[in-house]
C-alpha cells in the first residue's frame, strides 16, 4: 500500500491581474524611436483603455497558477458519480486533431467532406449495434439535448397519428434532466416511486399509465446505480396503451456489449459520447448526445441525415416529417471523432470488457466500504454505488464533509446529495480505467476519513485543510454573477 498522500495539488492564492499590475511594467520593449515624432490625431486613436500593466512572468505565472487549481482525470481518480470521468486515451486526441478534420469548413459541399461523412455514417452504425436501435442522429450536443430531441420525436410521432397526449411518467430514480426535458417539451411529469429494491415495479407503472400518457422516461442503470430489471415488462404496459419508452442511456458504461436496450422494448434512447465513449468533459465543454430510435420514429429525426449511395456519402435535408435542426451544422464533430476512434480501437470484445470492469470496480468499492458507510441498497450495483452519511451523523459529519476531506487526500470528491431519493448520498463511480492500486488507495482514504469522523470530526468540518479556499457558497456565484468592478 502506498502512503496516503495529503494535498498533492498545489494550492496558491491568486489575485486578479488588475490587483497585481504596476504602472510602467510591460512584457516587451520597442527599439528607440529613430524616425522623429509625429502628431497623431487623438480622434484616430480614441480612448485608451485603462489596462493593467504587467511583465511577462507576471502573466505566465498568473495563468499557470490558475491552471493548477483544476483537478482533472489526468491527475488522479475522479469518482464523480453519474459523470463517468474515465481516462481518455491520447490516441483519440491525436485523431481529432488531424488537419483534415480540424480545417474542414462545415459549409463545404458534401463531395469534399467524404471522410467526415463516412466517419459519421459508420459511427451511427456502431451506435445502432451497441444500443440495438434502428436509426441515429448525431446532432444533439449533450445528453440533455438528446433527451429533449427524443421527447420531441415522440411528440411529433404521436401528433402524426392525430394524438396529443399531455403527460409523461418519470420515476424518482431518473436523472434530474429527465423531468426538465419533459417539461420543456410541454408535458406534465407524473412522478412514480421506485420500490424497496431501488427499481421500478411494473405495478406502479400500470397504476398511472393511461391514454393521456405519452410515455415513460427511465434512466437505466438508474441513478442508484441499479439495473432496471423490469424494463421489458414495463415497456409492454406502456405500449399496450399506445405510449412510448424513452431510456436515458447516458450511463452506458455498464451495458456496452452486454445488453441492447432496443431488444427490451425501448423506442428512443440517447447516449453520451462524452461519457461512455471517452471524450474529456466537464466544465461545460463540448459534448455529444446522439439520439437512437426505432424505425417508427426515424422519419422525425433532425436533418441533415447522412445516406450512402455508391460509396458516396450525402447529406439529405428533404425529410418532410423532420422536427428540423437542433444544432448548427452537424453537431460536435470533435467528440464524434474521439468516440469513433475509441470504439474502433476497443472493438466489441474490449467494449464489453470495459463495461464488465466498470461494474467490477464499483462493486469492489461498495463491498470494501459498506462497513464504514451506510449502504441503502445492499445489492449488486452497476457502474456506480451509492452510500449515505447516516453512520457519521451522530458526529454531525455530513456527506459534504466527507467529500471535502477527500480533497485533502488528493481525490476528486464523489457526487453528493444526488440521487435525491437517498438522503445524504455519496455517489461513487470509479470507472474501468482505474487500477486496483488506485482503488485501494481511494478505499484507504475513505476508511481513514470514516475513522477521523469518529475520533476527530473537526478535521472533517474544516476540510479541505490545506487549501486557501475552503467552503465556498456553492450557489452564490451561479445566482449572483459578478464579472466586473
Ligand atoms: C450526465 C447525464 C445526463 C445529462 O447529460 P449532459 O451531457 O450533461 O447534458 C442525463 N442523464 C444521465 C443519466 C446522466 O448521467
Explain this structure.
This protein is an alpha/beta fold and 485 residues long. It folds into two domains: 91-345, Aspartate Aminotransferase, domain 2; 348-467, Aspartate Aminotransferase, domain 1, CATH 3.90.1150.10. Helices cover 36% and strands 11% of the residues. The protein contains 16 helices and twelve strands. It has helices at 17-20, 42-45, 56-68, 90-96, 99-102, 114-131, 143-160, 177-184, 202-208, 231-240, 273-276, 333-369, 399-408, 436-455, 457-461, 476-479; strands spanning 135-137, 167-171, 188-192, 213-219, 244-249, 268-271, 291-293, 305-309, 312-316, 385-388, 415-416, 425-428. The strands form three sheets. Strands 1-7-6-5-4-2-3 form a seven-stranded mixed β-sheet, with helices on both faces. A three-stranded antiparallel β-sheet has the order 10-12-11, covered by helices on one side. A two-stranded antiparallel ribbon has the order 8-9. A hairpin with an 8-residue loop joins strand 11 (415-416) and strand 12 (425-428). The chain is globular. The chain starts with 16 loop residues before the first helix and ends in a 6-residue tail after the last helix. The site of pyridoxal-5'-phosphate has 13 residues, from helix 7. Residues 82, 142-144, 175, 177, 219, 248, 250-251, 272, 287, 289 line the site of pyridoxal-5'-phosphate.
CATH architecture of the largest domain: 3-Layer(aba) Sandwich
Rg of Cα set: 26 Å
Strand order of the largest sheet: 1-7-6-5-4-2-3
Could you give the order of the helices and strands? Answer: HHHHHHEHEHEHEHEEHEEEHEHEEHHH
Report the top-level CATH class of the largest domain.
Answer: Alpha Beta
Share of residues in helices: 25-40%
What CATH calls the topology of the largest domain is Aspartate Aminotransferase, domain 2
Span between N and C termini?
50 Å
Give the number of DSSP strands. Answer: 12
The major pleated sheet works out as:
7 strands, mixed
Number of domains: 2
The outline comes out as globular
Mean pLDDT: 93
Amino acid at each position: 500500500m502506498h502512503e496516503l498522500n495529503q494535498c498533492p495539488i498545489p494550492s496558491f492564492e491568486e489575485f486578479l491581474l488588475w490587483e497585481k499590475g504596476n504602472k510602467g511594467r510591460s512584457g516587451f520593449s520597442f527599439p528607440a524611436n529613430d524616425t522623429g515624432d509625429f502628431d497623431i490625431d487623438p480622434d484616430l486613436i480614441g480612448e485608451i483603455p485603462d489596462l493593467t500593466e504587467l511583465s511577462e512572468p507576471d502573466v505566465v505565472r498568473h495563468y499557470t497558477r490558475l491552471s493548477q487549481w483544476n483537478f482533472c482525470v489526468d491527475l488522479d481518480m475522479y469518482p464523480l458519480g453519474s459523470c463517468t470521468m474515465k481516462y481518455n486515451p491520447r490516441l483519440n486526441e491525436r485523431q481529432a486533431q488531424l488537419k483534415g478534420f480540424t480545417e474542414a469548413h462545415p459549409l463545404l459541399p458534401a463531395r469534399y467532406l467524404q471522410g467526415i461523412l463516412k466517419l459519421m455514417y459508420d459511427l451511427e452504425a456502431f451506435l445502432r449495434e451497441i444500443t440495438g436501435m434502428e436509426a441515429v442522429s448525431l446532432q444533439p450536443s449533450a445528453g440533455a439535448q438528446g433527451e429533449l430531441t427524443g421527447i420531441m420525436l415522440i411528440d411529433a410521432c404521436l401528433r402524426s397519428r392525430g394524438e396529443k397526449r399531455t403527460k409523461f411518467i418519470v420515476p424518482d430514480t431518473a436523472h434530474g434532466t429527465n423531468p426538465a426535458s419533459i417539461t420543456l417539451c410541454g408535458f406534465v411529469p407524473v412522478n412514480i416511486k421506485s420500490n424497496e429494491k431501488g427499481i421500478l415495479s411494473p405495478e406502479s407503472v400500470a397504476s398511472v399509465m393511461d391514454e393521456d400518457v405519452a410515455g415513460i422516461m427511465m434512466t437505466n442503470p438508474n441513478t442508484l446505480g441499479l439495473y432496471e430489471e423490469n424494463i421489458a415488462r414495463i415497456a409492454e404496459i406502456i405500449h399496450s396503451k399506445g405510449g412510448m419508452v424513452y431510456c436515458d442511456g447516458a450511463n452506458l458504461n455498464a451495458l456496452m456489449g452486454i445488453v441492447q436496450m432496443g431488444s427490451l422494448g425501448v423506442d428512443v434512447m440517447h447516449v453520451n459520447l462524452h461519457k461512455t465513449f471517452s471524450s474529456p468533459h466537464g466544465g461545460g465543454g463540448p459534448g455529444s448526445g446522439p439520439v437512437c430510435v426505432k424505425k417508427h420514429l426515424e422519419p422525425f429525426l433532425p436533418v441533415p441525415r447522412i445516406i450512402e449511395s455508391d460509396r458516396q456519402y450525402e447529406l439529405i435535408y428533404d425529410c418532410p416529417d423532420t422536427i428540423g435542426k437542433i444544432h448548427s451544422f452537424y453537431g460536435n464533430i470533435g467528440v464524434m471523432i474521439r468516440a469513433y476512434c475509441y470504439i474502433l480501437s476497443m472493438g466489441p470484445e474490449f467494449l464489453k470488457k470495459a463495461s464488465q470492469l466498470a461494474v467490477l470496480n464499483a462493486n469492489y468499492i461498495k463491498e470494501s466500504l459498506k462497513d464504514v458507510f451506510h449502504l441503502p441498497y445492499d445489492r449488486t450495483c452497476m457502474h456506480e454505488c451509492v452510500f449515505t452519511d447516516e453512520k457519521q451523523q451522530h458526529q454531525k459529519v455530513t456527506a459534504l464533509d466527507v467529500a471535502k476531506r477527500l480533497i485533502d487526500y488528493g481525490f476528486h470528491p464523489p457526487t453528493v446529495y444526488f440521487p435525491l431519493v437517498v438522503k445524504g448520498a455519496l455517489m461513487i463511480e470509479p470507472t474501468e480505467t482505474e487500477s486496483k492500486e488506485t482503488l485501494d488507495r481511494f478505499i484507504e482514504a475513505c476508511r481513514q476519513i470514516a475513522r477521523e469522523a469518529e475520533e476527530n470530526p473537526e478535521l472533517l468540518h474544516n476540510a479541505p485543510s490545506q487549501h486557501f479556499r475552503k467552503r465556498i457558497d456553492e450557489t452564490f456565484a451561479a445566482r449572483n454573477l459578478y464579472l466586473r468592478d
